[in-house]
Amino acid sequence: MIDHSLRPWKTSHWATPGALAIGVLIGLGKLRAQNLYEGGYWDGRLWPSSPNVAAIAVDAAGDLIAAGNKLVFFNLTPVGGSGPGDIVRWDGQHWSILATNAPGVGALASRGGELFAGGQFASVDNVAATNVARWTGTNWTSMGDGLPVRPVRFATGTNAIYAASDVLAAGDSSYRLWAWDNSIWRSLGNGFAAPVKALLATNGALYAGWSSNLSRWDGQQWAQVATVMPNAAGMAEVRGIAMSGDTLVLAGAFGGVNGASATNVASLHGNNWTQLGTGLPDGDVRCLSRFGTNVYLCGAFKVLENGISTNAAILTLVSNQWV
């Protein structure tokens, strides 16, 4: 497996200068990132042919799963197929193919030995599946009747898989979320007025970030947890949610939460929101993740290294300072 040290990541390590990493997954101590603005690729240390990666996940073994359109890699081992693949796995030494015909996949999630793929499709490797499918470890299967529109975001809970879409289903005026209980999909309430940009299942709770709102599903209905206020640029958007220990962390583009001042990153202590960390450099926060007790931000940032301004795609907290 590729295992770089956890430090500020220069955009030159990921793609072209100025690229924006907008997806981060951390599994078994390995840091993963994807770059959809510049075509979804890392540099030649992982894949040299600049494939268009649409989604990534880390499975229970710590292997990297990538989905895209006919991905071709440097040392692709054609396990389970031949030629390019639409869903592939990197085990640290070789690429292998999980699906050769899965066009339109734009979301991945892993739970135990299972992999979930979502997007806009009618089948995966000739297995009929409407917009969502499950890999059992040996083959692809459908998940009930599927979903009416493409899911773009998953969250995995102990007893359920959650999915959110950025497309309005026929006849709907709100953007819906669904839960899979291992037998059927059920809609969670009436949805939201804007697409969900962040989704987290933790400690039996489900959190959704949409527009300037953070909402929590209590099992029966959605309840408002927080509202973010505009930052200096007039932006107010929730883009990432994470749980660090018992602390809920919120990231995005904002200048405050529930009336308390906080720039782009905030944490909840009791009923009070406060700024998380100091020294957050200029840049655009796009997502949030954690590993253990460490919290990571991804986006496009300007940082000083040895007195020289440089680009960074991922920041973490060190002694309460973003670096």
Summary?
With 323 residues, the chain is mostly beta strands.
What can you tell me about this protein's structure?
By secondary structure, the chain is mainly β. Helix content is 0%, strand content 52%. It is built from no helices and 31 strands. Strands 18-19-20-21-24-25 form a 6-stranded antiparallel β-sheet, with no helix packed on it. The model is unreliable at 1-22, 26-50 and 77-81 (pLDDT under 50).
- Average of the residue pLDDT scores: 80
Regions with pLDDT < 50 over 5+ consecutive residues? 1-22, 26-50, 77-81
Provide the spatial order of strands within the biggest beta sheet.
18-19-20-21-24-25
Spatial shape: globular
Give the beta-strand count: 31
Number of helices: 0
What portion of residues belong to β-strands?
Answer: over 45%
What percent of the residues sit in helical stretches (DSSP H or I)?
under 10%
Distance between the termini: 24 Å
